[in-house]
Amino acid sequence: MNKAILMGRLTRDPEIRYTQGDSPMCIARYTLAVDRRFNRNNDDGNNADFIPCICFGKSAEFVEKYLMKGTKMAVTGRIQTGSYTNRDGVKVYTTEVVIEEQEFAESKNAQSAGSRTSSGNTGADRRETGRQQAPAKSDDPMDGFMNIPDGIDEELPFA
Q1: Please, which contacts does 79-85 make with residues 24 or more away whose CB atoms are closer than 8 Å?
Q2: Are 67 and 10 contacting, i.e. CB atoms less than 8 angstroms apart?
C-alpha cells in the first residue's frame, strides 16, 4: 500500500501550469512544511520536513483558486519517485506526493488570529479544537456568534 497523509503549511504560493492541447489540464505544485513529531539529536535546528506535492485537474484548479503561502492543509496521496537526466548529464532522482485528497486544516479566522492581538480564543478556535469554553465576549458584530446575556448560561443545555 502506498498512502501518505500530511498536514502542514505551504512554504510559498503554488506553481500553476496548464498542459498544451485540445483540452488543457491544470497542474499545481506546492511544498508543504510538515512539523516533525520528535526532534532526536537534531543539531541543525530544522524541525520540519519540506515535502513536494503535485495535483492535477480539478484539485489543481482548487489550489490555483484558494491556496497561498502559509495556508495550512491536510492532504492524502501517494508517494511517487522518478528520475531524469539534467543538462549537465547528471541523473537526478525525485520524490513527491501525488495528491488525491486535500482540505483546509484551519479556518480563515484561525489563520488571521495570529495577526490579531486577543486575550481569549475566538469562536473559530473553539470550533477547531472541539473544547467547550465559556463564550468569548466580542465587540465585533461579524464574529459569527450571537452574544448571550449574562445570567442565562444555566438555561443552556450545552454550556
Answers
A1: 79/2, 79/4
A2: yes
Helix residue spans in 3-107 (DSSP H): 57-66
Neighbours of 151 (CB within 10 A): 7
Q: Among positive and negative, which fits the CA dihedral 20, 53, 62, 9?
A: negative
Higher pLDDT, 120 or 100: 100
Q: Are 96 and 114 in contact (CB under 8 A)?
A: no
**The C-alpha cell that represents 122 in the structure block:** 475566538
- 120 and 53, same structural domain? no
Same domain (yes/no): 9, 58? yes
Q: What's the CATH number where 63 sits?
A: 2.40.50.140
Residue-number span of the structural domain to which 135 is assigned: 112-149
Q: What pLDDT, in 10s, does the model give residues 15-70?
A: 999 999 999 999 999 999 999 877 666 556 678 999 999 999 999 999 999 999 99
Q: Is the pLDDT of residue 131 over 80?
A: no
* The overall pTM is greater than 0.70: no
